[in-house]
Amino acid sequence: MGGTESKLGFRRAIVNLTGRTNQTIDTSDDAFWDQFWSGTVNNISDIFALVTAEDIHTLREESPANFMTLIYKAVEKLDSSVIAGPSMSISEQTIVLNCVRLLTRLIPFVFESEEWRSFFWSKNSMDLEESLHGEGCGNAPLAQILLKKLSDLLFCPDFTIVAPAAVGPDTLEDFSIESIQHIWEKGVGFAYSRKTPPHIDSNRTEILKLLLTCFSETMYSAPSDSSQPNLWLSYFTSNENKHALPLFTSLLNVICAYDPQGYGLPYQHVMFSDHREQLVEVSAQVLMVILDHESASMQHMEEKCVPTNYFTYFLSRLHREEDFQFVLAGLIKLLNNPLLQTYLPNSCKKIGFHEELLVVFWKMCDYNKKFLFYVLKTSDVLDVLVPILYYLTESRNDPGKVGLMHVGVFILLLLSGERNFGVRLNKLYLTRVPMDLPIFTGNHADLLILVFHKIITCGHHRLQPLFDCILTIIVNISPYLKQMCMVSASKLMHLLEAFSTPWFLFANHTNYHLVFFLLEIFNNIIQYQFDGNAHLMYSIIRKRHVFHQLSNLPEDPTTVSKPHKKRGEQDNEEQLFSNEEWVPTREWVASWRKKLPLQTIMRLLQVLVPQVEKICIDKNLTDESEIITFLQNGTLVGLLPVPHPILMRKYQPNSATSVWFRRYMWGLVFLRNTAPPIWCETSIKLFEVQKM
């Protein structure tokens, strides 16, 4: 009964605050303002239910002074509670959490309005502080005060950390900073295990969600305005944040130490609640947002390199092998979570934040080359590859998963830029993950090729921009591929056959790029891995007419007509690449036709085709396995052109991909935080929100 009365009192205070009863609330009326955080409203869902979007819009537009004071009072209350002592009482914790929840509710509506967006950083907020507390108090914008207090709150004894025990800190090499002993979880930089009560994990989660809300100002700027700096992130990632290192390691360790299987008992997740999963998910979101801020750029000041983002700086400085082992093992465990197969359906808990994990892994590899080399040093990289290929296969036809498709392909492009990745792919693929692929016996390279073929031929039409990247990955690994199976060899040849038809080549001004990529793949394997790739050589010989047609490609595009398709026959390539406005010319065809790299393949056909025809006639061979055996024993030493240099195309970020990635990342955060709906009732500009 008391809880209901308290909620009614809270609701009445909101009505009074919005001015519906024509009341202007005195800023010094602490008894009134304390109603918003001293009551028994004990969860964020109540705050969102009691303070509606209509209330906030009315308050912001019709009672701006009350709106301003409410925000300031909440920040002030946070500030005074944290300063109260090394640990907080239960009542103080309640006040802090209600202030956090209220700010989480209000801040998106501040960002939504152009007129209000600068409030936290403007002189108005400092003037407000002076008017309430006297001159000389307004030394910092309200945003800085809030961020500093949230950072402190994340390392508050008995609130967000277990009270320090009689153990010493395990120092991080080359790092010198306070509160290393307060790192939340055993792992990077900290070697001691701590049992964390559920309420501490819950408190951490609520504060991190408010931090994420503070950083979300980016959502309210159009993509064309993405060059504008996010001041919230700039301040939080600067050297002003004394907790940057322990927070970075805490977030990373919480993610990588998480084990959704617990004791491994079937259906354990049904019988016992998991208070850690929500913390891990929001930790991954906060970490990926922070690591994306201004990349890892440096400013040159006084002849020294000063990090603009200390989180990416600390990430780049990690170098201990035991830290790499911990991080990689944790990410592999979580990325493979949906792939775990048991005899009991749904007996294993499945997590739902794989996209965030992929982004964190991508950032780790991109910012720390030592970590990238560690990943590629052993076959552990294949334990990352398989789940990525699984997600790509499962998501290829889902328009809502286009972002996941891009991230997965970009990660593989980054990995393929290193020689060791191609070498590791030659390991036999024995673990059978359920994917919609042809049955085959081969290695991980075969698996990758089959998945990519499926994406190109049976994927959603919005995946077209990825095709260059997909084929680039295969080009990068092709000089190192051994023992390609017949199924994958046939699929590669199928792509060339489809993409090299004249009507397709002339349908778009960039389609010929795909043929160049495929020819480069064949050339690399012929020049560097001829021995052991008899299946591909057989496919090339069997489909030799494709190469002859390419070498005799018509110069006049007007003589080429689109082939007639049978009723019901799917032509995915036509749907993806036809461009009605494109008109090819003779000059355009001539500009690339003469550059087609056919010399090596034509020389191979010139040598091998007569040999194969002769042995088929002499021995009356009709079984392709006997022809393949003959090719396995053959050689082209001294008969082919001089091998060309291996060209590795590495992932190169640019402004366009940065804008795309930022939209994807914040779209992901938006979709993951709908209970409560932190941003759903505001006008987002960074991406389009379709309301059902």
Structure description:
With 692 residues, this protein is mainly alpha-helical. The chain has a domain at 378-560 and 572-651. The chain is built from 32 helices and two strands. The protein has helices at residues 2-17, 30-33, 44-50, 53-62, 64-83, 90-112, 123-133, 142-153, 198-215, 231-236, 244-257, 268-271, 277-292, 310-317, 321-335, 354-367, 369-377, 380-395, 402-416, 419-424, 444-458, 467-477, 486-499, 502-505, 512-528, 534-542, 544-551, 572-577, 586-593, 599-619, 624-632, 655-672, and strands at residues 298-301, 304-307. Strands 1-2 form a two-stranded antiparallel sheet. Helix 6 runs parallel beside helix 9. The longest helix has 23 residues, at 90-112. The two termini are 36 Å apart. 42% of the residues are buried. The model is unreliable at 166-178, 296-303 and 566-577 (pLDDT under 50).
Helix content: 55-70%
Walk across the major sheet and give the strand order. Answer: 1-2
Low-confidence region ranges: 166-178, 296-303, 566-577
Radius of gyration: 30 Å
Average residue pLDDT: 85
End-to-end C-alpha gap: 36 Å
Class inferred from helices and paired strands: mainly alpha
Please indicate the percent range of residues in DSSP E strands (runs of 2 or more): under 5%
DSSP strand count: 2
Which outline best applies?
Answer: elongated
Q: What profile does the largest beta sheet have? A: 2 strands, antiparallel
Total helices: the number is 32
